[in-house]
Amino acid sequence: MTDHKIIDNFLSENEFKRLSSIVMGDNFPWFYQPNIERKHKSNSNDFTSYFTHTCYDKNKINSQLFYEFGTLIELLEIKALIRLKVNCYPNTNNLDIHQSHVDYPYSHKGCILYFNTCNGYTILEDGTKIESIANRVLLFDPSLPHQSTNATFTKARFNVNINYF
Q: What domains can you pick out in the chain, each with its CATH number?
């Protein structure tokens, strides 16, 4: 079994409502990504796409929205941040399991905070499925292969992916 930890109700109710209202609000600035897994972008049969907002990457803050995640960063006791990226996987007719990938090729910590409950999930290397449940956190090593999905019973699947030490 892959070493991971699931924590439900990770943020306080007020903090979770505040953060999810920002991320799932109608003014959140999303950026279209034509491919979910970059190394597979040459596959002409892959029509999956999603929206992201990278708040922190390559040792710099890329968005003022980064500061909205301060409580989450504190609770994770992050010593060094690698990346903080918010994801929106739009609804499709079929539940798509995306290509297996690693976030970075070296051991580090990862956190996925799920903003809404839906039928999408994360699949770990050993096949374990982590359901997307609002205010659930998955702590794992994202240098190990894992997969994401979209959702079919909600308008979209929302989460934030944090890579750190």
A: 4-164 (2.60.120.620)
